[in-house]
Structures are given as structure tokens and as C-alpha cells.
């Protein structure tokens, strides 16, 4: 097993400075089986993980979970797995699952899930699908996320818009954005109604709001389709209307996302696509902000695309070669229970990935729009980055295309055709490697 992972990791194993991670733990003296759980979270999210672990440790006397907060947890887990001493459980991101399964670095969970009753009916289907690779289960959900339009109600009121009526269509969004945009006497922007480049986390995905996709799910890159071209023509319309250089200058004054200078929190941008986590930062840095959340608008001629949203997920995995897989699974089962999951998701102020949610969860949840984010995950218009091991390269190409369209004035069709050409070569090469490994 280790040799297969070593071949997949290649140059990553040169990071010899991490070799301390491979040292075996000391034998515990308390009679319990100690398992190691590596998690990426710190701050209040880390506190929520700690409370969940403490609850598990207190409810039984056979297993003890040692929780460690690990930076760059995905890279370090791969290295530790290749070195023969992985953690027993690790908290990763959904986009790690396909790649790590391809490296043979994850334990397949099919039989364990079947025994426990964890299947598509137990979870919201969009989140269950994020844990599958070629039909097999390699991870299980923890805290999920959808994204919605956030709007500043005070700004709406200032320009005569109804603060309780966000835009439903993209045409309405564009018209409202124009009314909400404010220029100073010197011609510089003081406020933008909306910017497709802010916060910029889903620039690869604008095509999905217009009915596009980025690949056929198997062997063809589909960046340059009419739907995707239309989406990036819409993106370009903002740069054309408001001036690419002026928008760049305006955006250069934004502070860090997690700060009072966040563009939306500071009132620099009136409407923004943001995730369920945004409540946490509004509450921390500007609790008096009047805001709302609603499904992101759709093209007026495509009402079938209502409730489109990117979905993302934190996941638990049992690395290949874990020393205590049975005990690790016992802990994972607790996390996946309604009790454990709601404890974690409430602590991190996210919605639950489970198909059934208690009334108590909603009663205690501080986010006034938490049901919206949960219901968006049930939409048939959820999307995520393509489930392919070449996604990192694809994401970089889409970022380059967005920048060329947004700042350099490239025609969307030309920029996306360039992505198609470059990425098809990379995908073909990777598929050939996969065939050789399978053969």
C-alpha cells in the first residue's frame, strides 16, 4: 500500500522536514485505545470540534480521541500515510477526496457505511455525492456549505429599493447594482452595487448559473460552450460598464476577508455571493449591519436555473494504513449521528448535511437564514468543481481566463477556447495514466 502511495506522491516526499509526523505514539497508560484525529480547524470552529470530541470521549471508556489541529492537514496527511504512520482520522475538504483516493491514500468505507445505514437517503444527496469516487465511499460529510446572495438592506433603502425584496433575476441584479453604485466627486468609486470579482472564490463557476458545465463527467473539457460563454459575457459587461482599471483600483482597497475591512461588512459592496459562514463574520465585525440572504439570481429566460448554488463540504476520512481503523470508525459513526453532527454544525454555525434535522437545531441556531442554506442544498441546481484529479490545473486555467476577460478585455469565447485546448491535453494525459495504472 505504502509503495503505491509513494509513487502517486512523487516529489511531495522530499519534504523531509515533516518526518517527525511519522514517529509512532507512546503506548497509553489509561487502558483505552488512543486514536489520533487531525483536523484543520482552529478558533471557534476548532472549539466546536473539541466539544464534539469531548462528548465522544465522555460517553464511552474504550476509545480516546486525541485531537490535533494541523495546518496544511491534507499535505501532511498524505506524507504521513506514505511514511506508514498516518493519523487514524483526518478532517479534509471534499476536493481532496478524488485525488487522495487516486493515490490509494484513503480507506474505502462501502461495507462499513452499509452496516451503519449511511447512504444517500441518510444525507442530502448533493453532499453524499461529494464523498464518492467511481461509486465507492471514501469519506463522510461533516460541516457543509452552500452560497447565496447577501445584500445590504440599508443601501437598498438609501436608493429607494425595497430592502425586503432582493433581485430574483440577473437582469434585476444588474439594474439594482447600477442604482446602488456610488461615485465620489473625483470619479472614483465609493461603493459598488455588485462585482462578479468579489470575493472571487467561485470565478470558475459562473457558467453554472447560466446552465453551463465544465466537463462531461468523463473525458471531455467543456469550458467553451454557449452557456459558459454567455456567463462570462455577463461578467465582462461589468468590466465594460464600470471600467476594468477603475474596478481594479477600487478592489485594491479592500481589506482581508476575516476583518472589519471585508468589502461587504464595511459597506463597500452592496450585494455579494457568499456562503453560510458569512453570518459569523458579520456578527463578529459589524453586528449592527442590516443584511439579508436569498438564492442567487438566475437569467430571466432560464427560470429552471433558480436556486443554483455551489456546494462544498468538510469531510472525515480514515487514511489507508491507519493503526486503529475499527476504533476510528466508531468515532466517525458518532460524528455522523444526528447528535454528533448537530453538535458540530451548530458549534460552527453551519447547516447540517443530514436528511433529517431536529427542530432543536434550528431553534438554537443563531443564523436567521440557516434554513435557506439548508434548502439550497436540496436544489437540483447544486454544483461543485469537477470530480477529476486534474481539477487544480483546471482551476488555475479558469482563473487565468477570468482575469483575461475581467482585466485585459479578452473575448470570453477566445479565453474559454484557450482553456479547452490546454485542459483537454492535460485531461487526456491523466486518463492515459489512469488506464495504465488500472491495467
Question: Could you characterize what this model shows?
Answer:
The protein is built from 17 helices and twelve strands. Strand 4 (132-133) and strand 5 form a beta hairpin. Helix 9 crosses helix 16. The model is unreliable at 10-25 (pLDDT under 50). With 439 residues, the protein is of the alpha/beta class. The longest helix is centred in the last third of the chain and has 27 residues, at 412-438. The protein folds into two domains: 32-138 and 311-378, D-Maltodextrin-Binding Protein, domain 2; 147-308 and 387-430, Periplasmic binding protein-like II (D-Maltodextrin-Binding Protein, domain 2). The strands form three sheets. Strands 1, 2, 3, 6, 9, 10, 11 and 12 form an eight-stranded mixed sheet that branches. Strands 4-5 form a two-stranded antiparallel sheet.
- Helix and strand pattern: HEHEHEHHHEEEHHEEHHEHEEHHHHEHH
Number of domains: 2
Q: Quick one: how many beta strands?
A: 12
Question: Which percent range fits the helix content?
Answer: 40-55%
Which radius of gyration do the C-alpha atoms yield?
A: 23 Å
Helical segment tally?
A: 17
Query: How confident is the prediction overall: mean pLDDT?
Result: 93
Which residue ranges are poorly predicted, with pLDDT under 50 across at least 5 consecutive positions? 10-25
Which strand-content bin applies to the residues?
5-15%
CATH topology of the largest domain: D-Maltodextrin-Binding Protein, domain 2
Name of the level-1 CATH class of the largest domain? Alpha Beta
CATH superfamily of the largest domain: Periplasmic binding protein-like II
Q: Name the structural class.
A: alpha/beta
Q: Could you say what the CATH architecture of the largest domain is?
A: 3-Layer(aba) Sandwich
Distance between the ends: 17 Å
Shape annotation: globular
Largest sheet: 8 strands, mixed
